[in-house]
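User: Hi! I'm working on a homework problem where we have to compare a predicted structure to a textbook description. Could you give me the structure for the chain below?
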Amino acid sequence: MEMADVTIHVDETLTEEHLARISEAVRGHDGVMAVAHREDKPHLIIVEYNPAQVTSAGLLEVVTAQGVQAELIGL
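Assistant: Happy to help. Predicted structure tokens:
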């Protein structure tokens, strides 16, 4: 299985609760293997995923559907 990762930059300052909701939404998407963030950089979400099942653009849509502005970085 091929794996890829992407970093998503969220433009807003997130509460821990909001970050948890976003991470849960991303984690629940088909093809996502792991979602991580560092406590000192909560605006960065790292997603490991199977590109045969989901695209980085699709993951970005999952994040922005949570009511935040975000963009992909590190492509």
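For your comparison, note the following. The CA atoms of residues 22 and 63 lie 6 Å apart. The beta strands are 4-10, 32-38, 41-49, 70-73. Good luck with the assignment!
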